[in-house]
Amino acid sequence: MAKSLTFSADYDPELDAVDEDIVSAGPSTGEMERAERASLRRVAGLSTELADITEVEYRQLRMELVVLVGVWTDGDAEQAEASLAELGRLAETAGSQVLEGVIQRRERPDPATYVGSGKVRELRDVVSATGADTVICDGELSPGQLRQLEERLKVKVVDRTALILDIFAQHARSREGKAQVELAQLQYFLPRLRGWGEAMSRQAGGRAGANGGVGTRGPGETKLEIDRRSVHKRISKLRKELAAMRTVRSTKRDRRAANRVPSVAIAGYTNAGKSSLLNALTEAGVLVEDALFATLDPTTRKAVTPDGRGYTLTDTVGFVRHLPHQLVEAFRSTLEEVGGADLLVHVVDGSDAAPQEQVTAVREVIGEIGEQHGDSMPPELLVVNKIDDIDATRLAELRHLLPEAQFVSARSGAGIAELREAVAQYLPQPDVLVDALVPYTRGELMSRVHAEGELLEQEHTPEGTRVRAKVRSDLAGVLSEFATAG
Ligand SMILES: Nc1nc2c(ncn2[C@@H]2O[C@H](COP(=O)(O)OP(=O)(O)OP(=O)(O)O)[C@@H](O)[C@H]2O)c(=O)[nH]1
Ligand SMILES: [Mg+2]
User: Fold this and answer.
1) 409 lines ligand 1 (CB under 6 A)
2) pTM of the entire predicted model
3) Closest by alpha carbon to 146, among 164, 165, 162, 170?
4) Which of 60, 289, 406, 463 gives the lowest tally of CB atoms within 10 Å of its CB?
5) Closest by alpha carbon to 333, among 382, 302, 369, 365?
6) In the chain, what are the domain boundaries?
7) What pLDDT digit, counting tens, does each position of 217-264 carry?
8) 306 C-alpha vs ligand 2 centroid, how far in Å?
9) Domains 55-236 and 260-426 in one fold
10) Is residue 362 scored above 60 in pLDDT?
11) Cβ–ligand 1 contact at 410 (below 6 Å)
12) How would you summarize the oligomeric state and partners of this protein (predicted)?
């Protein structure tokens, strides 16, 4: 204050700048107040929870009438149609009703409007004819493309990334899962953040924008900065929380590793039957649904090999072509389950038209995690599921295409016994022969021998349990204290 008084008589560029700001921000005090009230209300909502922003932009996808549009740049028409069909399934999973799907053949998406400008007009006709309220594009669009398309089509435009984020938001159950999805949504949302004034003028069909001018734009932009800052703050808070949760998760995994309970991770394309397979192998009762991304939180269950050794089996989130990179990043800790496992069971839907493409898409994501993960990834056991749903010719074809795979049906149980054997082959074998007299006070050691080792002989004596078994070296070390001569 003292400073501004002292210098007020002289020229001060800083003060000049302040003056100019005030002038340009408020042509009329009434306008200012109204905009300020609006912006204040919104900030209040923001400070408690960002739900209002994410709700506006993402969560309203549900129960909408949508038209799908894809730009087909390479590959054949069949692949382009399959990709659009998958987009349709994703849209339905998100709760939308698909009215129509259109594809344009183009060298590359139009930088301004995704589809070519001629097509935008056609698309506009399709939208009015069907009465759709949303258009979903089969790709990730730039903020500019989304805005331009929206302006021309006069309906909401959503891209594949936002759609997948929306599904994840609807399905995440655990605290960690929810935090990961929110982080991914905010990262996606940040560069697409628009001013409140602009959003209002959009809603008013351009009328407010036309006469709003400087008065609405100024405060709108201030609001935009506040929004940005809040989003940044929320992002760093989520990052911290997730880092803490990740530590807990890795501690748990370390504990499992210390106990040397072998672990198997089930990964694969969404809807391939991962949860069904987990159920078939363990009778776990995990949610199975004919919907994409039914499982978002990893579920771990105990399983046993045919020769009685225990291991853990973890169901993971499904993969999809063009998994938004924000999600690959955000779901790293979940996907790390895969990196830490002794074996990766990679499930493929054998009834899919092109299972090899699913295999490639999944391996791409796994490769990405592997790079980040640093150390070596576990071996992969490929499993083709749903063989009850294909005919003998197709089965023979697939056996030829994927000779390394196990062929099963989680539904009918075909091939499950063989799969159990195959999994057991990959798990560390108990190979140290021990003879020990375990006191009755150390019952937990006997439980471990039963669970992890291969029991050869057991006899209850007054001093304790005499046991002869094959175990892995870590347990043999613990048992050496009670070793008997032979
Ligand atoms: N015909 C047939 N259908 C199967 C088989 N296994 C699973 N399904 C069906 O496939 C659909 C998806 O099964 P899930 O086990 O939920 O698949 P998932 O891979 O866990 O899916 P997400 O968690 O959504 O990624 C369900 O409708 C199952 O009933 C099978 O062996 N044969
Ligand atoms: Mg599942």
Assistant:
1) yes
2) 0.66
3) 162
4) 463
5) 369
6) 55-236, 260-426, 432-482
7) 444 556 677 778 888 999 999 999 988 887 777 776 676 666 667 889
8) 24
9) yes
10) yes
11) yes
12) Monomer. Associates with the 50S ribosomal subunit.
